Amino acid sequence: MASVMSRRPKIGGVCERDLDLFLQEELISSPKFCRWFGDKLRLSEISHVAESVERGQTDQTGESDITAIFRLKDGSRVIVFVENKIKAAFQNQQHDRYRTRAEKALQSGDISEYRIVLFAPQKYLDRS
């Protein structure tokens, strides 16, 4: 009898762009993923899915891998900046540049709070 082939996809060579696109898709389409994500960020009041998700947003301080805006149940809005790391090292003052972008978003008045997130495999964090 022939062996049953695995239905698991075989994916090799995952890069940061792949993770960006995966996160972008989940944040705009999966309420379950957004609830999980919100819980991890201590934003348990996220209403449904992200209002907007941009990949590779650039300004004078640099680039954000993912920028997502969520509306909370009280009507306020939260901006979430996501940095994906798989192999590349942190850039000089990278977190400070994310914070500068976040503070600028708060000053606009449209956003009531922010989060800065690092998505990375544990082995990346262990060596960083």
Walk me through the structure.
The protein has 128 residues and is of the alpha+beta class. It is built from four helices and four strands. It has helices at residues 16-29, 31-40, 94-107, 122-127, and strands at residues 52-59, 62-71, 77-84, 113-119. It is globular, with a radius of gyration of 17 Å.
Short overview:
The protein has 128 residues and is of the alpha+beta class.
Q: How large is the count of helical segments? A: 4
Terminal-residue CA separation: 48 Å
Cα Rg? 17 Å
Number of DSSP-assigned strands: 4
Q: Low-confidence stretches at least 5 residues in length (pLDDT < 50)?
A: none
Dominant shape? globular
User: Strand-and-helix sequence, N→C?
Assistant: HHEEEHEH
Pick out its properties.
alpha+beta; 4 helices; four-stranded mixed sheet; 128 residues
How are the SSEs ordered, and which strands pair?
Elements: H1 16-29, H2 31-40, E1 52-59, E2 62-71, E3 77-84, H3 94-107, E4 113-119, H4 122-127
Parallel strand pairs: 3-4
Antiparallel strand pairs: 1-2, 2-3
